[in-house]
Amino acid sequence: MDLGAIIGLVLGLMLIALGATSEGGSLDRFFSVGSLLITVGGSFCAALVHFPMRDFLGFPRLLWRVVRPPVWNRTQIIADFRRYADIARRNGILALEAITGEIRDPFLRRGIQLAVDGADPRVVEDLLRTDIELSGRGHDRGVRILRALAGYAPAFGLVGTLLGQVLMLRDLRDPNTVAKAMSLAIINTLYGVLMAYLVFGPLAEKLAIQAQEEATVREMVIRGVMGLQSGDNPAVLEQKLVVYVSPVGVQA
Q: In the beta sheet, which residues pair with residue 251?
């Protein structure tokens, strides 16, 4: 689980709440169901108009992926390929079929299976790269949805602000009405900015980073499968893959 997303969001909200109440204010003054409906609800409705329904329906799964992304251990991948190369060198590449059942990553398992089946290396590479491209398109749609929401949220916060001003101008003689309308107007702007810059925008960039990391690991797997097919010995294959290991940290 990516604790950074959860910690950042929760801590950010806590700090904002602490700052808002540090001068003796009350949190209930900053809560408005109407403002949430206008700002958050309006943003999602605009995104629903913007994107095809099939993309929008995958939004909950998208958020789950951001919070709990796949964990890639590049060092372990290198060790696995070294073992696969050793098996292939001793017993032939067909011997790898016995270990495909223990491979949990579908992408890696498919690559090994294609190599075992004797598919042409160019065909194997083309099929695996097609998988990367299709997966990348899915991630790109998710990033675009989140970025769109980040753009819509301040706009609908402005809509709420305008509505509050309309209510305020309808009856300037009643101080209570003016105060409530002004509060509604300001809270809408607050919600819009918070949703854009604390939630939707950061989540979009996190998903983009995760997609880039996944693409890099997939490229690493393709390089390893190609090495198995070309009969690389374990040491050579390891050297081909070690370039994908970051000098700062190998655990993705």
A: 73
Q: 136 φ, ψ to 5°?
A: -65, -35
Tell me the pTM: 0.81
**Total length of the chain:** 252
Element (H, E) at 37: none
Give the whole-angstrom CA distance, residue 218 versus residue 131.
9
The ranges assigned to domains in the chain are 1-31, 52-154+196-252
* Residues 33-81: tens digit of each pLDDT: 888 999 999 999 999 999 988 887 877 887 787 777 888 889 999 999 9
What's the rounded Cα separation, in Å, for the pair 237 and 231? Answer: 9
Residue with tokens 């990516």: 2
Q: Is 73 helix (H, G, I), strand (E, B) or coil?
A: strand
Backbone angles phi, psi at 151, to 5 degrees: -80, -35
